[in-house]
Design brief:
This protein is α+β, with helices and mostly antiparallel strands. The chain has 11 helices and 12 strands. It has a 7-stranded mixed sheet with strand order 3-7-8-12-11-10-9. A 3-stranded antiparallel sheet has the order 4-6-5. It binds adenosine-5'-triphosphate, zinc ion and magnesium ion. GO terms for molecular function: ligase activity.
């Protein structure tokens, strides 16, 4: 049995993750959630971003904002839309009959105004653009959301619904670059504080198709994306647990984000994969938090 399935089975057996019958869709135990809550509290203690504006969006976003973001151009394979039954009583009778006969009933569902959020920062940009130009000094935001990506896998670190904690900086190129490099350092310190081995590397997003390969190479060459890699299922193939993204003026152009001087704003975000961090901790220190090394327990539970 490979390592991934092995860890997943051990997590199921320990009751930390709960099998729903769908790969990448799991329930979480109280102990698992406690680790995430404690780690988020640790992030808050390390973040000098006490001035960040806290915003919590639900895990679904405005479909028009999703369409405007260009997500379907880059990652159509990962997106998840919300469809609903919008028919009359006769349609309902047909629907139930369809289900009873084991036929496909989903084709008749209609698209709603809601799309599942693919990354915690996507709903932010149009929201901030709507406010008008940014104030002096730009903007700094603290986000957390469940995110959906259609990438079913036996790898417990590749879920379809997972939480991303993000800090987002909107401002001048200098401001957002400084924000990102600060977080690359801070992220490593934070993860080391809980006894995990870290490695920082350049990365690229899985842009769709042949043209996407070029976009990915370009992203890597320009160092637009860095990842903090931590062993989860394997010591050799590490897992990206934090991402540091510089979008240049992509979202600024897309949504008309302006600095106080009327220039197109640049944006950068740091994203913590909260389940991945919890999984890295369980993989490294054992499935019972009571047995974790004292310094790690102290960092998390005080
Ligand atoms: P990967 O290369 O492993 O697919 P990613 O580049 O898609 O990761 P981002 O798009 O940068 O990741 O997302 C931000 C963070 O969210 C990642 O650093 C990771 O910790 C987490 N994350 C991404 N995809 C998943 C997933 N399928 N399951 C759990 N966490 C995820
Ligand atoms: Zn982001
Ligand atoms: Mg991915």
């Amino acid at each position: 049995m490979d390592m991934q399935t092995n860890l997943l089975d051990r997590l199921f057996d320990a009751g930390l993750l709960i099998d729903t019958g769908v790969d990448g869709l799991y329930g979480r135990s109280g102990a698992f959630e406690d680790v995430i809550a404690r780690f988020e509290a640790l992030i808050a203690r390390h973040a000098p971003e006490a001035t960040a504006e806290v915003i919590r969006f639900p895990p679904g976003m405005n479909r028009a904002h999703f369409e405007g973001s260009g997500y379907m151009k880059s990652f159509p394979q990962l997106a998840g839309t919300v469809h609903s039954f919008c028919g009359c009583e006769l349609d309902h009778v047909n629907l139930l009959q369809c289900m009873a006969e084991g036929d496909d009933w989903t084709g008749k569902q209609e698209a709603t105004d809601v799309v599942l959020t693919p990354a915690a920062c996507y709903p932010l940009y149009p929201t901030i653009a709507k406010r008008g130009p940014l104030p002096e000094g730009g903007g700094l935001f603290d986000l957390q959301s469940y995110c959906f990506r259609h990438e079913p896998s036996k790898d417990p670190a590749r879920m379809q619904l997972f939480r991303m904690r993000e800090f987002v900086r909107i401002g001048t190129p200098d401001d957002v670059m400084a924000f990102r490099s600060d977080w690359m350092e801070r992220g490593s310190t934070l993860v080391s504080a809980v006894g995990l081995d870290v490695e920082l590397d350049t990365a690229n997003d899985p842009f769709f198709g042949r043209a996407g390969k070029m976009l990915g190479n370009n992203q890597r060459e320009q160092k637009l994306k860095f990842e903090l890699l931590i062993p989860v299922t394997s010591a050799t193939t590490k897992t990206a647990c934090l991402s540091f993204n510089y979008h240049q003026d992509h979202f600024g152009q897309t949504w008309g984000l302006k600095t106080v001087n009327g220039e197109t704003a640049h944006t950068a975000c740091v994203g913590f994969g909260l389940e991945r961090i919890a999984l890295a901790l369980f993989a490294r220190h054992g499935l019972d938090t009571a047995d974790w090394p004292e310094p790690v327990r102290k960092a998390l539970w005080g």
